[in-house]
Amino acid sequence: MTSDTKAGTARRGLMFVLSSPSGAGKSTISRALLKDPEIVLSVSVTTRERRPSEIDGVHYKFISVRQFQALRDQNELLEWAVVHGNFYGTPCGPVEDALADGRDVLFDIDYQGTQQLSEAARVDVVSVFILPPSMAELRARLERRAEDSDAVIAERLENAHEEIDHWDEYDYVLINDNLDETFHKVESILAAERLRRERSVGLGQFIERLKAER
Ligand code: ADP
Ligand code: 5GP
After folding, report:
1. φ/ψ of residue 83, rounded to 5
2. Cα Rg, the chain, nearest whole Å
């Protein structure tokens, strides 16, 4: 729990979800957000191939289908889904540890995972959906990123419509045209959500003490 020692108050950690069609910019925004030491990334497991720039254990844990099925069947995943034909899932342990340690946890997961997290812990989940300014720009970003084959890019563009259809299940929806502006909005959402009354622990006692002062 993050505490304000002077007031004797603290707050519960929150689960901050970023989703978007592939290429809209959520990994870029996540990277910038993780400079804040109060939030840690939930590193997912996946069966998809590692991209050249990715580091095993940092961006994802890359595992086999068999290993994935074992984790899933032993209930070690907080949520999981098939996205673009690959398995992705969130291991429970690190998330529970981080929240118990008073940190917020950042999730880069799709709408299916967001639905599952919200079912399990709605009050602790804050979800943000990132849209591209246009489909042409989405394609251009996927091409500029140059980490996926043409076939993979085509599949991701194909799936973008299905992802976008879930925009209204999110607490916040942002159009990522200018990156700095979008990042500033995401930071502002996180800052405000951290201050919500429902996340405060000990505020009632603080108010009692305040009122008892003469
Ligand atoms: P996602 O994680 O949603 O798949 P990325 O964060 O990898 O997307 O972004 C895809 C590409 O688009 C990257 O090359 C990134 O640098 C670029 N990008 C992200 N946001 C913007 C933006 N607002 N304007 C221009 N390019 C952007
Ligand atoms: P990518 O292959 O581009 O890294 O991710 C593809 C999609 O899978 C993205 O929408 C990403 O948010 C989603 N994803 C990544 N990890 C997880 C996860 O653990 N669970 C779920 N449900 N989706 C994930």
Report:
1. -130, 130
2. 19
For residue 203, report the distance from its CA to the centre of ligand 1, in Å: 40
d(CA 121, CA 118): 5
Reported as a single tens digit per residue, the pLDDT across 153-200 is 999 999 999 999 999 999 999 999 999 999 999 999 999 999 999 888
Whether 5 shows a pLDDT value over 70: the answer reads no
**pLDDT tens digits for 67-119?**
999 999 999 999 999 998 999 999 999 999 998 888 999 999 999 999 999 99
Residue with CA at minimum distance from ligand 2 atom 22: 113
Q: Which ligand 2 atom sits closest to the C-alpha of 48? A: 2
> Which pLDDT band, with edges at 50, 70 and 90, does 8 fall under?
confident
Q: Which amino acid is at 79?
A: E
Length of the chain: 214
Ligand 2: distance of its center to the CA of 72 in Å? Answer: 16
Domains with residue ranges and CATH for the chain: 8-195 (3.40.50.300)
Give pTM, 2 decimals. Answer: 0.94
Atom from ligand 2 closest to the CA of residue 89: 19
Residue 107 pairs in a beta bridge with 17
To the nearest 10°, the Cα dihedral for 111, 20, 188, 39?
70
Residues having CB within 6 Å of any atom of ligand 1: 20, 22-28, 141, 144-145, 176, 178-179
